[in-house]
Amino acid sequence: MARSPGRTLAAVVLVSGVVGAVLAGPVAGVALAAYGGLGVRGALRRQAHRHADLLRRRALEQLAGLAADLRAGLPVPAVGTWAGPVRVTALARAAVHLAERTGAPLAELLERVEADARAADRGLAAAAAQAAGARATAWLLAALPLGGIGLEYAIGADPVTVLLHTPIGGGSAVLAIGLQVAGLLWAERLGGARGPVR
Fold it and tell me: Please, what's the b/e burial string for 145-162 (b: 16 or more CB within 10 A of its CB; e: otherwise)?
């Protein structure tokens, strides 16, 4: 039985937090939980996008094939057997009902549904390309503290000990991690990162 994405994310956050806390203290636990959660969340979202895009492409190919079959004079398969993204399937079923009730040419209606879905895909791809710069900037800004830690090591300081084992350093680290996570989630929302295509 496959584990749900929410459970996978919760398990990774919990295990990362416990491992970090055992190895280097509570601040390290918070850091590993937060960054591990962000990484797994991103991987799960990419997997969901790929799966939804694959289903959508297959549905559009089936729709185009069905329209071609109809133009060739082949019979329409039962509407209940159609599967695919919710919006495309609903529009295809509506086209069948409209054709049955009004006598409109079903092949033409299905071709229009397919053309509309492909135009929507092109619009979403253009919007994602426009938002890619903003997302890259957000990730660059989130990674800047690592550069600061590296610079401190280069001048002979030990920032990790301060951040993990002093009250002021630990409080600062937890606050910074919280702000980073909130900033990345906010930038994702502002950038229009879409969910799985329906």
Answer: eeeeeeeeeeeeeebbee
